Amino acid sequence: MTRTSISHQFLDEVRSKNDIVDVASKYITLNKRGANYWACCPFHNEKTPSFSIKQDGQFFKCFGCGESGNVFNLVMKMENVDFYTAVEILAKNAGLQMPSEKDNQKMQELKHKRDRIYQVLKATTEFYHNNLLNSKNSSQKLYLEKRKISDEMIEKFQIGASLNFDELPRYLKKLGFTPEEMLSAGVVGRGDRDNLYDFYGERLIFPIFNGFGEVVAYSGRAVAEREDRAKYKNTPQTLVFNKSEILFGYNFLRDLKKEHLLDTIIIVEGHIDVIACHQVGITNTIGCMGTALTSQHARKIKQLADNVILCLDADGAGNLATYKAIDTLKSLDLNVKVVRLDLNIAKDPDEFLKKRGKEEFLNLLSNAVDCIDFVLKDSAKKYNLESNSDKNKYINEALNYISKFSSPAEREIYLAEVQRLVKIPIDALRKSLMTSEHKENDESQIVDSKIDTESNKYIKDSKIMLLSSILYKKIKNIDDLSGLFDSDDELSSLYAFLKEKIDNNSDYNVSMLFDNFDIEDKSLIDQVINYEFPPEDVYNQYLEDTIKRVKIYELSKSLDELKTKMKNSKTVDEQISYLPKIKEIQEKINKEKSN
After folding, report:
1. Is 455 exposed, middle or buried (0-12, 13-18, 19+ CB in 10 A)?
2. Which residues, in sequence order, are CB contacts of 113 under 8 Å at separation 6+?
3. What is the DSSP letter of 248?
4. How far is residue 550's CA from residue 441's CA, in Å, rounded to a whole number?
5. Average pLDDT over residues 305-311
6. Residue 550 contacts by C-beta under 8 Å, 6 or more apart in sequence?
């Protein structure tokens, strides 16, 4: 659902009649400190308030988990509703009528399409679930019995069965769903003869729920091994499903969070692993469904807890997935521990629970290893540390992890572990760490030279400062800045948005940005919003210097373009023709520099 499908005029009216401080006060206790209001963040666990609301800009920002947004985003998150419903809630709060279908035809059409997809998925889930319950001797039912999955878990996870390829489309058609609606939901495919068939035909069905407990997708598992059939068949991306954002079992975590029973999240790999853990009462378990953890997954996890235990499969693929997951989760400052199963005992948590039971598994979890400790010890197994060449390779790999993911105090602990393994003086390791960090910084500057050279970094910082000045209405004459925002990036898009508002004499504020841009924590637009202005006298001089440098930047770009054209000229006369213009621009640059 696109936020801009509702007219901006109506959104502005709803926003203007719902002060974000008043709305937030209904959910959390706010304390005013200085110009802002503060509270403990409602989206992640914390003891020290880092959730801030700027009343003048009408937006919130958590400096702990990075969540930010306007009053619409706040209601969406607090009420667990979509954007349209959040607008409805706030409109009702302000005594406003939602636009009619005629006024919002596009929005209503999109909402209707989403609603119909959810209805298709609900009917399909019931169909599959009833299939499983009513087919005592089906291969899917026998498979679950073999895996010792209880009736309680079958009900909790709404597990189902597709018994053939034809029955589901016929069933859904009888309920009044169109072929297009079935296809949009991802539950049917279209055959060579234009016939519809069950997309998950003859498979065990695991419904995938979103955070609100609604089915958005399925994972179908083949219970009979066949060379012509993949083991799993998953829903493709749809209007309601994005695999980069959904984790199996996440909906149950939200219930634990509401009951203040969630401190640590356990991440396993497969559906059966999640179900097996829930079956023995370890309900803080979710599954990544065999896909790599994404930054979106990590952000969703961080909303609910700061502590994570990775317990992925004990094979090579599971080990690789563990390393990747550590990188993703640590990048958001989550506390990550690792459980590595012994492949000689069990390849996954489900098998371990069946062989050794709940108590031994809980013992494994309680003794989970800090993720960096895990990496240092596990990666050492790849090398022959008696060989100088291998020893150097290991040291480089180990120091890279220590550098990326540890504080100065932690580094001493980790360096001591590396020293124990490689048996060289710790002072030498400290020196190597400092050298590698310096080298990494140098290499990153080379790789990102377009961004991080001194000149271009200045330009990026200038853009952020100037856009923040426009946003907070410190400057209004922005025509002279257009040359700085002619590239295809988010800052140029923000400039175009603000310029249009100014050209049309329309009011604007920070809150509006969240309706028009996808703003992630520490993104460039986020930096614009949270730009810290220096004292007034310093700022005025900085602004003057920046505009001057921008003019020089624009002139220099034009000069470089002319010189390139002159260089590529095919005749001497053509080359000479560029000289007067080059001289003119060079004089302008010199004049600007001397002022």
Report:
1. exposed
2. 184, 239
3. B
4. 27
5. 94
6. 462, 466, 480, 481, 483, 484
Angle between helices 316-330 and 295-304 (to 10 degrees): 70
Residue 107: pLDDT band with limits 50, 70, 90: low
Quick count: other Cβ atoms within 10 Å of Cβ 325? 22
Taking the CB of residue 57, how many other CB atoms lie within 10 A of it? Answer: 19
Position 454 scores a pLDDT of 44
Q: What is the CATH number of domain 105-234?
A: 3.90.980.10
Phi, psi of 429 (to 5 degrees): -65, -40
Sequence-separated (6 or more) residues with CB below 8 Å from residue 170: none
The CA distance from 193 to 109, in Å, is 30
Name the residue among 454, 464, 457 with its Cα closest to residue 532.
Answer: 464
Q: What angle do CA 271, 276, 278 make, to 5 degrees?
A: 100
Categorize the per-residue pLDDT at 4 as very low, low, confident or very high, splitting at 50, 70 and 90. very low
Which backbone phi and psi does 35 adopt, to 5 degrees?
-85, -10
SS3 198: strand
Query: How many CB atoms are located within 10 Å of the residue 256 CB?
Result: 16
Q: What is the pLDDT of residues 330-380, one digit of tens each?
A: 888 889 999 999 999 999 999 999 999 999 999 999 999 999 999 999 888
- Domain segments of the chain: what residues? 3-93, 105-234, 250-367, 378-447, 451-594
Residue with tokens 């637009």: 525
**CA 60 to CA 73: how far, in whole Å?**
9
- Please name the fold of domain 250-367: Dna Topoisomerase Vi A Subunit; Chain: A, domain 2 (3.40.1360)
Q: How far is CA 67 from CA 74, 257, 514, 523, in A?
A: 10, 17, 12, 12
Give the residue ranges of DSSP H helices in 448-578.
449-452, 454-471, 490-503, 510-516, 524-529, 536-567, 572-577
Q: What's the CATH code, domain 3-93?
A: 3.90.580.10
Report pLDDT for 261: 86
Percent of the chain with pLDDT over 90: 33
Determine if residue 420 is left, alpha or beta; phi over 0 gives left, psi from -120 to 50 gives alpha, anything else beta: alpha
Are 443 and 520 in contact by the 8 Å Cβ rule? The answer is no
487's CB contacts (< 8 A; 6+ apart) are: none
- DSSP single-letter state for residue 484: G
Please, which residues have CB within 8 angstroms of residue 427's CB and are 6 or more apart in sequence?
none
Beta bridge pairs of residue 285: 266
Say if CB 103 and CB 97 are below 8 A apart.
no
Candidate ranges 73-77, 100-104, 177-181; pick with highest mean pLDDT: 177-181
Rounded to the nearest 10°, the torsion over CA 39, 45, 47, 50 is -40
Pairing state of beta strands 307-310 and 285-287?
A: unpaired
- With beta carbons less than 8 A apart as the criterion, state whether 521 and 68 touch: yes
Average the pLDDT over 31-48 and give the result: 82
Name the band, by pLDDT with cuts 50, 70 and 90, for residue 450. very low
